[in-house]
Amino acid sequence: MKRYLPWIGIGALAVIMVMAVVGFGQSGSNSSAAEGSNELDAAAGEPLYQQHCAACHGSDLRGTAAGPSHLSIVYEPNHHGDAAFALAVRNGVRQHHWNFGDMPPVQGLTDDHIASITAYVRDQQRIHGFEPYPPP
Predict the structure, then answer these.
(1) Distance separating alpha carbons of residues 122 and 124, to the nearest angstrom
(2) End-to-end C-alpha distance for the chain, whole angstroms
(3) Distance between CA 54 and CA 69 in Å, rounded?
(4) pTM value?
(5) C-alpha span between 94 and 25 (Å, rounded)
(6) Is residue 16 part of a domain?
(7) CB of 37 closer than 8 Å to CB of 44
(8) Cβ proximity of 103 and 44 under 8 Å
(9) Which pLDDT score is estimated for 40?
(10) Mean pLDDT of residues grouped by 10 in the chain (136 residues)?
(11) Residue 80 is assigned to a structural domain of this protein
């Protein structure tokens, strides 16, 4: 057993070194820049949301007679992740949780627009929390 011990020590040292390099790459201004980027995306997403989504999902994200609330627990990130938002915008989505009918694709939005809208929705979800499903 003793002859394997130095290799375990070298392996552990290698893991520590990799963790240190990764940690240095994420520390300081880099991590705050990433957080700032999400804030900028959310700020850019608000007018896009109002223009392309609010007619159905509400200017306050609480839904309308034409579409559901984005503050519903159904749209919580562990149930409908960011990729689900992007797919719905690009391809439309068949009715499955609600009785509003199918959602058509939304034309004229780039991937960056969709990411900004999603960041805005996630920001509002963090601020306002989630509503129960089904709605009262």
Answers:
(1) 5
(2) 65
(3) 10
(4) 0.72
(5) 42
(6) yes
(7) no
(8) no
(9) 73
(10) 48 39 36 51 96 98 96 95 96 93 96 97 97 89
(11) yes
Domain that holds residue 101: 2-128
State the virtual CA torsion across 22, 27, 33, 35 in degrees, nearest 10: 90
Strand partners, 72: 131
Residue tagged 């223009």 (tokens): 51
The amino acid sitting at 65 is A
Instruction: List strand residue ranges (DSSP E) for 7-97, in order.
Output: none
* Domain harbouring 88, CATH code: 1.10.760.10
The first and second tokens of residue 113, run together, are 């627009």
State how far the alpha carbon of 67 is from the alpha carbons of 12, 19, 21, 34, 129, in Å. Answer: 54, 46, 47, 32, 19
Q: Which of 6, 5, 9 is nearest to 17 (CA)?
A: 9
Gap between the Cα atoms of 93 and 101, Å rounded: 9
Name the residue with tokens 């009262």.
136
Per the listing, tokens 């070194």 go with: 17
Amino acid present at 101: G
Residue 118: inside a domain, yes or no? yes
Q: What pLDDT, on the 0 to 100 scale, is given for residue 37? A: 56
